[in-house]
Amino acid sequence: MTAEALILDGNVVAADIKEKLLERIQGLAEQAIVPCLATILVGEDPSSATYVRMKGNACKRLGIESIRIDLPTETTTEQLIETIHKLNADPKVHGILLQHPVPEQIDERAAFEAIAIEKDVDGVTALGFAQNAFGYADFPSCTPAAIVAILDYYKIPVEGKHAVVIGRSPILGKPVSLMLLNKNATVTTCHSKTENLEDVVRLGDIIVAAVGKPKFIQGDWIKPGAVVLDAGYNKGNVGDVDYDRCLEKASAITPVPAGVGPVTIATLLKHTVDAAEKVAKRKSID
Amino acid sequence: MTAEALILDGNVVAADIKEKLLERIQGLAEQAIVPCLATILVGEDPSSATYVRMKGNACKRLGIESIRIDLPTETTTEQLIETIHKLNADPKVHGILLQHPVPEQIDERAAFEAIAIEKDVDGVTALGFAQNAFGYADFPSCTPAAIVAILDYYKIPVEGKHAVVIGRSPILGKPVSLMLLNKNATVTTCHSKTENLEDVVRLGDIIVAAVGKPKFIQGDWIKPGAVVLDAGYNKGNVGDVDYDRCLEKASAITPVPAGVGPVTIATLLKHTVDAAEKVAKRKSID
């Protein structure tokens, strides 16, 4: 029907981001600084454990130190916050990532807010969110930033286009909506209460799926020629988009796996190096 | 054509908000607390001066103290921030309002950020913005909160509806978009770079005009039966909406004047009383 869709290869974008980090990590090494990311995993959710392991491995391959902190499922909010405060105070640690979701007895928002803004490499604090919304955050949330990085890498026009975001979470749907708005897209944010969702999705020149439901976005919801970005990652390695059907309609599309996921991890590494460089800069001024 | 539009009378909504404040102000008086709003006006912009005067008068009529601070046009960012810090430290002051726009040599964002969160009754700080975006702010920006108050007062259904916001400023377009999203509307945010603006506006069941251009929104841009909220206030007492033409198409509409404006002021008074009550509560716990 339409010409063949461009596959937006996340591995290519991630490799480009990481490539550019190597020299910077080298530069930090010359100042005896090793960028260091601390990840906190509470409980034993197997997919969360996999993510944390992938992030740790990605750090290692690039020469970024990673500290992994595993806390038991029954951890309280207070105990988690105490752990975060220790990492805030540790000069060796440049970035802190609290893997979510956390077990339900924990006040996730309170835990996120405990992260010091200069170590909030996943942009989860309220202040980080607002700075991103206003367009001057050091560390926008990694998945939204990855989506923007893919659009940038493949030079997909955003200004004036109609972007439809499905999802409104504080770390994905809302920040990616605001980032696309700041890139001069007209932005519609949809969610579970949206009436006539198909018709709304059909408005989109750019579609961001951030629902957390496997193959939720159907091929016939997509305007021919739309650009489809799938931020979902569900059991069985499937995204939020019915890839095969959407592929027939889209002008460009991210696969799952090897789409947004690897770019999210690369963005996390980049933010950790950014944070380490800021520390280096402060040191050199002192 | 359509049945006659309901006029969303801001004076009625404002009177309702103020009515409910009287008893609370009385209750504070019994604890020897007088709610107090400090307004800062930098320079001599005549409309800004009018707004500040209106706010001061509204305070007086209700028994809220208002302190007005006038700073010269050539005030620096540092001088303005120093003034704000003094007000932050003054236990008599419960709310701080920096009238904007400020003269161009001032870093407005830096000045806003200097306001202590517990006195940020107009929701201008980044933290206040994010708390509002996440749905738990004490003080959402007053104009967005006024728009929501009008919808609530007139029991206009929002959930599932398509709201179109024209404007994306940090204190109006963005926060009202997020508030409507949190009330379960599907929200589209438009701006100067939006392509085919008329078609996008025509999608809206609820339209919020926050453009700052007189009579910008045309009658034939409006879907028949839409609800139109005009947050604009331009020279000659006209809003951002071509009221007469939109009146013919809308099911409900705010006039200008006597629409969003008076509710914004009533919301500011309410936030000041809220802030004073929080201080009273802390005192009673001490």
From TrEMBL, chains A, B:
Domain Tetrahydrofolate dehydrogenase/cyclohydrolase NAD(P)-binding: 141-278
Domain Tetrahydrofolate dehydrogenase/cyclohydrolase catalytic residue range list: 8-122
GO biological process, one term: L-histidine biosynthetic process
Pathways involved: One-carbon metabolism; tetrahydrofolate interconversion
Keyword Transcription: no
EC number(s) per entry: 1.5.1.5, 3.5.4.9
Cited function: Catalyzes the oxidation of 5,10-methylenetetrahydrofolate to 5,10-methenyltetrahydrofolate and then the hydrolysis of 5,10-methenyltetrahydrofolate to 10-formyltetrahydrofolate.
Cross-referenced HAMAP family: THF_DHG_CYH
Similarity section: Belongs to the tetrahydrofolate dehydrogenase/cyclohydrolase family.
Protein name as catalogued: Bifunctional protein FolD
Organism: Paenibacillus pini JCM 16418
Gene: folD
